[in-house]
Amino acid sequence: MFRKKLMPLFFVLLLILSGCAGFKTGDSKSADSGDKVVIDFWSFWGSEIRRPVIDKIVADFNESQDKIEVKHTFVPWGDIWTKELAAIAAKNPPDVVINDINATALRGQKNQAMNLSRFLEKDDISDRFYEELWNATLYEGDSYGIPFNTDTRILFYNKTAFKEAGLDPEKPPATWEELWEYAEKLDVKNGDTYDRIGFYPLWGVNSDVWMLNSDGKNFFDEDGVPIIDTEANRETLEWVMDWHEKYGANTINSYKSQIDSQQGNPFFNGKLAMYVNTPTFYTQIRDYAPDLDFGVAMLPEREPGSGNTSWGGGFVAEIPQGSKHPEEAWEFIKHLTDVEAQEYWAVKNFDNVANIKAAENAAKNSEMPDKDKVVYQMAIDNMENTLLTPVPVHAPDFMNLVNPELDSILLGKKSIEQGLKDAQQSLEKLIEKSK
């Protein structure tokens, strides 16, 4: 009887002593894992390429410390932001979410994203990022999101086609006039059809990008006053319409259907000599036309000295209003937007990142082939010319009013003058209504 009672007591004492002496099974952090703060991170990166990259960044953070555990939740592109708003309303939002940079100020104004000023007072990381990106996160001087990635628009051109047309393959068009002249030489017409088109400005981008390119101005001035009905915009749309008349609706629509198919993009097989798109378009060239001899350049200037203005967007990491763990969320966001994680994302995804140092490192990274480096460096260089178009808080969803007017102009339903006038009046009414 005595021995049966003594043995359990002996083992209890042994377990207590071994615990006090620091003897633990497995990793030393495992005993503390229950004390970690778990934060929920939402993104729409669920593809077979991007999902492993973001999961590795999350895993690196989780392994770097023993206080916070990040759980990555994939929410599809079409659902993530409506679900986030519903979660905020239900007072159960994620702790970090990836969101559109151009509407960051609007979400700050609507109290959907958390004001990050209290974190930035302690950890001012604003100098990590391109100024244009950082400014897009501000509402009344405070940031409501930290830039993660971005993009820009550049010109891709077929060097083989240039040689066939007698053009210097190392000298892309520098102005709108040269762009037209080059296209004339690059066009190959067979009767009423084209075997090759030199260029068409509305493939890859819309007319608003060329309006921005023409004079470097957005649809609003510094005071938030709409400035869409301008002489520069009228002349830009006249220039766009000249291209439309040059090729005709049938040819344009036929090519557009091929472009929309991605894999059958006519730029891949030489039927389109010049094309504007984001630098990440290169990954499609790499996949579908690996032997294509191409070059990249900044968007041509409207005229010498007017500037190679391009347009960009991107995404930010936000802490939704109502997050239960904002301090821990902030620690993860710092990791997500620091040099190491950003460079890893850039190299593995061939994506433009917001962190300047990481972008510069990526362009020199040994994992990037030489062709990749050329395109990526052009993307970096073009950031100096790239403007974002943040949604004004007093004119939300303004493009839903502008785009139908631009479409009416391009379809011949309205004159350029009438369409821009109507767009201007619509924006003025929207602003007046918002007051």
Could you walk me through the main structural features you see in this protein, from its secondary elements to its overall organization?
With 435 residues, the protein is of the alpha/beta class. It folds into two domains: 36-150 and 313-387, D-Maltodextrin-Binding Protein, domain 2 (3-Layer(aba) Sandwich); 154-311 and 394-434, D-Maltodextrin-Binding Protein, domain 2 (3-Layer(aba) Sandwich), CATH 3.40.190.10. It is built from 18 helices and 14 strands. The strands form five sheets. The protein has a five-stranded mixed beta sheet. Strands 10-7-11 form a three-stranded antiparallel beta sheet. Helix 2 packs antiparallel against helix 14 (339-349), helix 9 (207-215) packs across helix 10 and helix 17 (399-410) runs antiparallel to helix 18 (416-434). The protein starts with a helix and ends with a helix.
Task: Lay out the secondary structure.
Elements lengths: L1 H19 L16 E7 L6 H15 L3 E7 L5 H10 L6 E5 L3 H6 L7 H6 L8 H6 L1 E2 L2 E2 L2 E5 L3 E5 H6 L11 H11 L1 E3 L2 E4 L10 H9 L15 H17 L1 H12 L13 E4 L4 H7 L5 E4 L12 E2 L2 E5 L7 H11 L2 H11 L6 H7 L7 H13 L3 E2 L11 H12 L5 H19 L1
Parallel strand pairs: 1-2, 1-3, 12-14
Antiparallel strand pairs: 3-13, 4-5, 6-13, 7-10, 7-11, 8-9
Helix pairs in contact: 2-14, 9-10, 14-15, 17-18
According to CATH, the homologous superfamily of the largest domain is: Periplasmic binding protein-like II
State the domain count: 2
Cα-to-Cα separation, first versus last residue: 87 Å
Would you identify the CATH architecture of the largest domain? Answer: 3-Layer(aba) Sandwich
Residue share in helix: 40-55%
Mean pLDDT across all residues, rounded?
A: 92
Strand coverage percent: 5-15%
How are the strands ordered across the major sheet? 2-1-3-13-6
Which parts are unreliable, with pLDDT below 50 for 5 consecutive residues or more? 1-32
Largest beta-sheet characterization: 5 strands, mixed
Globular, elongated, flat, extended or rod-shaped: what is the shape?
A: globular
Enter the CATH topology name of the largest domain. Answer: D-Maltodextrin-Binding Protein, domain 2
Number of helical segments with 4 or more residues: 18
Secondary structural class: alpha/beta
CATH class category label of the largest domain: Alpha Beta
The overall strand count is 14
